[in-house]
Design brief:
about 160 residues; 4 helices; alpha/beta; elongated; Nucleotidyltransferase, domain 5
Length: about 160
């Protein structure tokens, strides 16, 4: 054995197992501490969003789009506009600011989210909604949409804009 060690020219052998353990721990630490919450928001075709110099990061929330064609919730068309206007048939008879089909779609989404929040304590329903609105949409229509969304439980609005940087 001694003759074999002398012929190897050294007594130090590289212990790679400890080094692999160390790199594994560093990798796990970096993966856990690095949180990437990028939100990909794709404006609808023909949607001309307003510009802004705001630099706030995006959030995870329900997406609602108001374009010249209609109102969409999670990319599903809820209301089709008649020549760029809300059809009279979607308005509530008792309250002219209340849009019945929009309320039903948002209420369904809120019920789903609340059900998930009951079963998973890491998820919480906070009533956030990302609103994409074409710049040509009249403010009176946006007020009606926001009024209806608030009644459905979505009262925290985040407006999607195009960065002007």
């Amino acid at each position: 054995m001694r003759a074999l060690r002398k012929s190897q020219g050294g007594t130090f052998g590289l212990q790679i197992t400890s080094m692999i353990d160390m790199f594994t721990l560093i990798l796990v630490f970096l993966l856990k501490s690095y949180s990437s919450s990028t939100v990909t928001l794709v404006p609808g075709q023909g949607l001309n969003l307003p510009g802004s110099t705001a630099t706030n990061p995006g959030i995870e929330a329900l997406e609602m789009t108001v374009s010249s064609e209609g109102i969409f919730v999670d990319s599903k068309q809820i209301i089709k506009f008649d020549s760029g206007r809300l059809p009279a048939s979607v308005m509530d008879k008792a309250d002219n600011r209340f849009i019945r089909p929009l309320f039903e779609a948002l209420n369904e989404q809120a019920t789903k989210s609340k059900g998930i929040a009951e079963k998973n304590e890491d998820v919480k329903f906070d009533g956030k909604i990302i609103l994409q609105a074409d710049r040509s949409i009249p403010y009176a229509l946006l007020k009606q949409v926001m009024y209806t969304a608030t009644i459905a439980g979505y009262s925290d609005f985040k407006f999607a804009v195009i960065s002007m940087h």
